[in-house]
Design goal:
Layout (H helix, E strand, L loop, with lengths): L1 E5 L3 E5 L8 E6 L3 E8 L2 E6 L5 E6 L3 E2 L9 E4 L4 E5 L8 E6 L3 E8 L2 E6 L3 E6 H11 L6 H9 L11 E2 L2 E2 L1 H10 L9 H7 L2 E3 L9 E5 L8 E7 L2 E6 L4 E6 H4 L4 E7 L5
Length: 269
């Protein structure tokens, strides 16, 4: 199977080979994808970090050369948008800005700076100190439901975007997907897929902060919305009705959608 690497900061993925088709997800800079098919200027891709989710992307967004055979490690972008510089200095030229949760190949270290691989363009420099500062501001201790919840609350006010997976805009499952990816846990892309495949079911009488709550309109086994339980009667979610990341009262929300169930990703023990 042919592989490629996303070479633009953020690429939209569509349900079919047309910009008029609905956007179903996004892929971040330097993400490795499998190329399943090609049609004129389009490529059908499979996204391993989204549990092999598929869709169509412009060919021009994909680098089809090799990834680095040798590298120091991979690093994660924790700023909402991080600058990749042409030299390891703050006042040097910005080559590209890449979004939160981008994973970069580190080729070399120089003080607080990392030389990273840039698909199709060679190399650039990332200020690792800024990533450590951004991470420390939102993430403390081990991965848990509480750490997921704490991170989720830092995105209050981020706008809603169908298919979105960045602070430029999230949809409900994309919000959850990104929160867990930042904890090195890779969930399925869509709400119903997460409900079917990820984590363990939890009785609604035993839910804890950080557990995922799933809601449905017609079929309980096919939920259409997901949020994160905050405790009491509150949950936080990326909501189209709310215009972005907001908290809702659970009992009031049940008047609109029914609860499919709750799931726990991280064992609290």
């Amino acid at each position: 199977m042919e592989k490629g690497t996303v070479k633009v900061a953020l690429a939209n993925v569509y349900s079919s080979a047309s910009e008029s088709a609905g956007m179903v997800t996004q892929v971040l800079f330097a993400t490795t994808v499998d190329i399943l098919d090609k049609k004129k200027v389009w490529a059908k891709i499979q996204i391993p970090v989204q549990q092999d989710y598929t869709g169509w992307i412009k060919k021009e967004c994909i680098f089809r050369g090799r990834t680095p055979a040798r590298f120091y490690r991979k690093t994660i972008v924790w700023e909402h948008w991080a600058a990749l510089k042409d030299k390891p200095r703050e006042n040097s030229r910005t080559m590209l800005r890449v979004p939160l949760n981008t994973r970069l190949w580190v080729l070399e270290k120089q003080g607080d700076w990392s030389m990273v691989w840039v698909p199709d363009s060679g190399r650039a420099w990332l200020d690792e100190r800024k990533q450590e500062t951004a991470r420390a501001a939102v993430f403390r201790g081990r991965s848990s439901g509480e750490s997921i919840l704490g991170l989720a609350r830092t995105f209050r006010g981020v706008p809603y975007l169908w298919g979105g997976i960045t602070p430029e805009g999230f949809d409900c499952s994309g919000f959850v997907l990104t929160l867990y990816a930042l904890h090195d846990c890779f969930l399925h892309r869509d709400t119903d897929q997460q409900y079917e495949n990820d984590g363990l079911f939890v009785d609604m009488n035993e839910i804890r902060p950080g557990d995922l709550l799933y809601f449905y309109e017609e079929t309980a086994e096919k939920p259409t919305h997901v949020g994160i339980y905050e405790g009491g009667q509150s949950f936080i979610n990326a909501s189209s009705e709310g215009g972005g990341v907001v908290s809702y009262n659970l009992e009031k929300y049940k008047q609109r959608l029914k609860v499919s169930g709750a799931k726990r990703i991280f064992d609290p023990s």
